[in-house]
Specification:
The chain is built from 15 helices and 27 strands. The radius of gyration is 50 Å and the shape is elongated. Helix 2 (214-218) links the parallel strand 12 and strand 13 (223-225). The model is unreliable at 645-669 (pLDDT under 50). The longest helix has 49 residues, at 434-482. Helix 10 (542-551) runs parallel beside helix 12 (568-584). The strands form five sheets. It has a 16-stranded parallel β-sheet with strand order 1-2-3-5-7-9-11-12-13-14-15-16-17-18-19-21, with no helix packed on it. A five-stranded parallel β-sheet has the order 24-23-25-26-27, sandwiched between helices. By secondary structure, it is α/β, with parallel strands linked by helices. Among the domains are: 1-137, Ribonuclease Inhibitor (Leucine-rich repeat, LRR (right-handed beta-alpha superhelix), Alpha-Beta Horseshoe); 431-484; 495-639, Toll/interleukin-1 receptor homology (TIR) domain (Rossmann fold, 3-Layer(aba) Sandwich).
Length: 669
């Protein structure tokens, strides 16, 4: 019919206008196609479909691919959509579509296209908005491949064999809004051209191991699909959400996740734009078991939907969803969940998919905020403990998965029995002692905990506050029990106490003892003390002064320091006091050890050794908070007037052995 010039029979579509004209499977080759379009030139066709056998494919070199002249006679047909899918075109030649003066959409998917001429799309500048090259045999994209398609909005290169993007690939596409690269063989993104207006980027089902260069392609994206690649670090999620400020839909599932090591700079900002996150099959159970990336959702406060299916989750970490304050839909299907805490889901959640898990006896309180719930494919444990859940199923207003999908999984005798049938035969649990035992265990636990806390706090209080406690006790006891302060016994002796100490220790003794005991230092003190520096008579024999002081005092207080042990007169006074004690059988001798005088050093002196082996002696406290208690003991000793049970004869003159000179420890007054 159209063997020569295609005009012999005239235009078969004269005076006709087509919204859609489908010329598929007509058997036209390139030559006949050109002649046919020449015959119908000028016929308005909005949508032209031309599928069949056009093109040489791989094996038919005797056939031709369309060229610049093939479609030139469609120039006046105002074709808006041109569908050349499902042909055998192998090579897009120079300006092959230049005859389509106003075309907006060209579909050459499902061909055999392996090569694209540098100028293949000449003539389409300024009007082509969508180009579909999916399901072809393209292996690479160069910087010139789509150059100057300045109005192109959508470019579909899905399901090709693209393994590399050339330097500055996709140049000349300033208004590109959607780029489909799914189903290719990309291992990396190279250094593509900047696409400032790209909003939809599909890179799923490739072989990507790294995301270097993705910022050039999709930094302004609102939809990003990176699923089913070979990415291994969940840190990518932090990085993408942090840097893609306009991102709303992010699909990342199906990668080979092995670890999660986010860097500090990739912290997800609060109040970001993300609305939907897909992390299906992302090894979250392994990651969360290691305690890693538990803060993944903390800043996703605007998220509305999340997909976490196929993650082998056996449990949900406590508080894992606390940041999802706006979440409405959640998919946890095809995991291994056996138990859910009551408060695990945010109150904003409305739709929940829990199909194909291992929930045996769910708590109805877990689902209190939901509007829809899918539980199909779970293995419910049909016993009396399921009664509350069955009652909830009958009474709830929540839209549930079909009732026939809710079946018993255990015990074996009830396997595959619909829950609706089991509801009629379920019996309440027998009352046993388990609750009482649990209550008793709880009470014992509380009691044990309180006991441990009390003992611990008591030890801490005693160690830190015993001084203040003693002062408070003395004040209360003084008011309630003891009455006015006791005075020393009235006797005919001149002094209440002879304070015997080395002159080298005078400053310390005055500050630590005399100001607390002697009535001449303070009117509040009740003792009239005698000590060498003030009360010994000058010119009198020193030994006579000592004897007068010992025999003229009710008590003798020896301040034993290293200086005392080196002072012969001090040891002589000790012997005189010991002699009086033996003679009167009265306990008049009080020993106070001060400074760093070890017990073994006291044992070197016979007289002192014999005494301290039989009687208690006082030691100056190391902790300042024990001073009040010490003074109380000392005053009690000074006031006491008791007979000794038995005092063995002792040497009047103990051995005096020189000791090392060590200064007394400074006290805190």
């Amino acid at each position: 019919m159209y063997e020569k010039n295609g005009t012999g029979c005239g235009n078969p579509f004269k005076d006709m206008t087509f919204q859609v004209l489908d010329l598929s499977s007509n058997g036209f080759n390139v030559t006949k196609t050109r002649l046919f379009f020449r015959a119908i030139q000028g016929t308005p066709i909005a949508h032209l479909t031309f599928s069949g056998h056009m093109g040489k494919g791989f094996l038919h070199d005797n056939l031709a691919d369309p060229d610049e002249s093939t479609f030139e006679d469609l120039a006046n047909s105002t074709v808006d959509v041109f569908d050349l899918s499902n042909n055998f075109i192998f090579f897009l030649k120079k300006a092959v579509f230049s005859g389509l003066k106003v075309v907006r959409i060209i579909d050459v998917s499902h061909n055999k296209i392996n090569q694209i001429n540098r100028n293949a799309f000449d003539g389409l500048q300024g009007h082509l908005q969508m180009l579909n090259l999916s399901s072809n045999l393209l292996g690479e994209v160069h910087s010139y491949t789509f150059a100057n398609l300045t109005k192109l909005r959508i470019l579909d290169l899905s399901n090709n064999h693209i393994g590399a993007l050339g330097y500055k690939a996709f140049s000349g596409l300033p208004h590109l809004g959607a780029l489909f690269l799914r189903g290719n063989s990309l291992r990396d993104l190279g250094s593509p051209a900047l696409l400032p207006n790209l909003q939809y980027l599909f890179l799923n089902d490739n072989k990507l191991k790294f995301l270097h260069g993705i910022a050039d392609l999709g930094l302004s994206s609102i939809h990003l699909d990176l699923s089913d690649n070979r990415l291994t670090n969940l840190e990518d999620v932090y990085d993408i959400v942090n840097h893609f400020k306009h991102l709303r839909y992010f699909v990342y599932g199906g990668n080979f996740i092995k670890w999660c090591q986010p860097i500090l700079d990739d912290a997800i900002p609060y109040n970001n734009s993300l609305l939907v996150l897909d992390l299906h099959d992302s090894s979250l159970q392994m990651i969360w078991e290691q305690g890693k990336c538990l803060d993944l959702f903390n800043s996703l406060n605007n998220l509305l939907g999340i997909i976490l299916s196929f993650n082998s989750l056996t449990s949900l970490p406590r508080g894992i969803f606390r940041g999802l304050s706006s979440i409405e839909e959640m998919d946890l299907s095809s995991n291994a969940l056996t138990f859910l805490e009551v408060d695990v889901f945010p109150l904003s959640l409305k739709s929940l998919v829990l199909s194909n898990n291992f929930l045996a006896s769910p708590d109805p309180m877990t689902f209190q905020s939901l509007a829809t719930l899918s539980l199909e494919g779970n293995h419910f444990h049909c016993d009396c403990h399921l009664e509350s859940f069955l009652q909830w199923l009958d009474a709830t207003n929540v839209t549930l998965s079909p009732a026939e999908t809710h079946r018993c999984g255990f015990p074996a005798a009830l396997r595959d029995l619909p829950l609706a049938n089991y509801t009629a035969v379920v019996e309440p649990c027998e009352v046993d002692d388990d609750e009482a035992v649990q209550y008793l265990k709880f009470v014992l636990f509380i009691a044990s905990a309180l006991l441990v806390i009390t003992v611990t706090l008591s030890g801490i209080v005693y160690a830190r506050l015993r001084g203040q406690i003693f002062i408070l006790y003395k004040k209360m006891a003084g008011r309630v029990l003891e009455g006015p302060k006791a005075a020393p016994p009235v006797e005919e002796l001149q002094y209440d106490a002879f304070v015997c100490f080395s002159n080298n220790d005078y400053v310390w003794v005055e500050a630590a003892l005399l100001k607390k005991l002697d009535d001449q230092f303070s009117e509040e003190n009740i003792f009239h003390c005698c000590f060498e520096a003030r009360d010994f008579l000058p010119g009198e024999d020193h030994l006579s002064n000592i004897r007068s002081a010992v025999w003229g005092s009710r008590k003798t207080l020896c301040i034993i320091s290293k200086e005392f042990l080196k002072d012969g007169w001090c040891l002589e006074a000790f012997s005189v006091a010991q002699s009086r004690m033996l003679e009167e059988l009265t306990d008049i001798l009080i020993l106070l050890v001060v400074g760093k005088v070890a017990h073994y050093q006291l044992m070197k002196y016979n007289a002192i050794r014999n005494l301290i082996q039989k009687r208690e002696y006082l030691v100056w406290p190391e902790d300042p908070q024990d001073l009040d208690w010490f003074y109380e003991r000392l005053i009690t000793q000074l006031l006491k007037d008791s007979k000794t049970k038995k005092i063995e004869a002792e040497d009047k003159r103990p051995d005096i052995r020189p000791q090392d000179d060590v200064e007394l420890k400074e006290i805190r007054l």
